[in-house]
Amino acid sequence: MFKKYFKLGLFTLIYIIPIYIKLKNNNIKKISAFKFLNWRNGYCYFKGMYLEKEVFVKIDVKMHLLSNDKLVYDLCKDVMKDDLVEILHYSLDSEIQFVVYEFFNSNELDENILLNELKYLDDIFRILNNLSKAGIIHRDIKLNNFLVKRGKLKIIDFTFSNSNTHKDFKEVDVNISYNCFLLEFLGAGLNPSPFLWDDYFSFYCILKSLEKEGGDLFKLKLSDYIKEADKLVGETEYRLKCGTKYYFFIRNLKIRIKEIFRMDHNYRVLH
Predict the structure, then answer these.
(1) HEC profile of the chain
(2) pLDDT of 72-83, one tens digit each?
């Protein structure tokens, strides 16, 4: 925890003033930090006012992948206008990149909301189907990447999205070991395997995790959604070759350490 706070503090010292200056120069006012503890990997978040609207600002000072957010919005805004948070302004041509969204004052989707409103599963299916038709793989489908407000559901966070057909998407440099570790865990463990992503598979895993919740009627309705998602698994996948010698050395070392602890645990149980 101390290490995390130290990194956040160092980041703040280096970038916070230039960020504030850049946002103010782009007519963004009343700027305040947003979800400070979620800042990582060169991404940070702010609230403010732009053209008399409350806005959410996503900043990228390291990986420079925010063009993916803008690209998805441009490709999908006509068909998915109600499913996306509107982009009002952006700057993607310097060290400090940002995208300004209309602030969607909402709740993150979670299991409790789904238990009471199964209709949101229909919305997720519609969203995933439209992304698939557009050739886009989100790569990080999880409940908290959907926002809910007054019955409306929106999908967010396309920074690490990619495509097998659109060549303008940006990918992190897989020759950097840190990026390989980052991509290994992209998808929150809901992807088929490391460096393979399938949005329908992620959704299928979410649905399966809900089976232990709710009553018999809920489980009966849920089974239909599970069957439908299962049919779509494998329809749109994105695969990446990733790894450096250092990455594979550390990964194999971690696996070996886990095996040793498991063997030691089994030995203690038997004796």
Answers:
(1) CHHHHHHHHHHHHHHHHHHHHHHHHCCEEEEEECCHHHCECCEEEEEEEECCEEEEEEEECCCCCHHHHHHHHHHHCCCCHHHECCEEEEECCCCCEEEEEECCCCEECCHHHHHHCCHHHHHHHHHHHHHHHCCEECCCCCHHHEEEECCEEEECCCCCCEECCCCCCCCCCCCCHHHHHHHHCCCCCCCCECCEEEHHHHHHHHHHHHHHCCCHHHHHHHHHHHHHHHHHCCCCEEECCCCCHHHHHHHHHHHHHHHHHHHHHHHHHHC
(2) 999 999 999 999
